[in-house]
Amino acid sequence: MSDPVYHLSGVVKVYGHREVLRIEELEVQRGEILCIVGPSGAGKSTLLRLLNFLEPPTSGEITFNGHLVDGAIPLEMRRRVTMVFQRPILLHATTQQNVAYALKIRGERDGDDKARRVMERVGLGEFATAPARKLSGGEAQRVALARALVIEPQVLLLDEPTANLDPYNVGLIERIITTLNREQAVTIVLVTHNVFQAQRLAHRVALLLEGRIVETADVKQFFNEPRDPRTAAFVRGEMIY
Question: For residue 182, how many other CB atoms are within 10 A of its CB?
């Protein structure tokens, strides 16, 4: 692949006196699903925050669509990327109002119609008028996903999107992710503890340990012929995570 959406070079993130991330080189290719795996505390969520422009790196360079991300981030660039957090915060409003909120603040007049179409896609059509905060965990996660999809992002960042969900909702969300990538070519970066999920969804997988990328490879090589013994140990489930 070529023409990456993101290119990270020498990226370091420090909080106080603690270095939490050091990425020598990483590219996210246009239209791929890249899964980031690794134990808790490895820096996976921090990496997503940098990719979402929520905070800058302490040092190093991040380019997005060929443009160096430096200083104030243009609104147009921010709007091309959206993120779904592991524990989404929903508004005290109906499901439809939650999904349409981003469109409303952007001044889109057909926001309700678009929100309804997206809710149907994620299996929430019957919950349009339901209070969002009374939904189950899986339903709430689908609201957060619909809220991200309704703005038609170029890049979707997902932080453990199926953690603690039942098998039905896991399967439903995984189908939404693969369909979105296949039919609309949305670039997806997904953080997951679940190696089986990474194996099902990813085009490429990256292992992050102690803030550093150990190995990045296409899904077949990563799981069947890893180059690094730490990757092999992780795939075999020998690491505690």
Answer: 11
Banded model confidence at residue 192, pLDDT cuts 50, 70, 90:
very high
pLDDT for the residue 1? 47
- Residue 35 identity: C
Tell me: pLDDT of 146 over 80: yes
Measure CA 25 to chain center. Answer: 19
Task: Find out whether 200 and 220 touch, Cβ atoms under 8 Å.
Answer: no
Closest CA to 45 of 84, 72, 81: 84
Q: Buried (b) or exposed (e) across 166-180, using 16+ Cβ within 10 A?
A: eeebbebbbebbeeb
pTM: 0.92
Residues contacting residue 73 through CB under 8 Å, at least 6 positions apart:
53
Q: Give how far Cα 65 sits from Cα of 4, 62, 78, 80, Å.
A: 7, 10, 12, 10
Of the candidates 7, 175, 156, the residue with the CA atom closest to the CA atom of residue 82: 156
What mean pLDDT value characterizes the chain?
Answer: 91
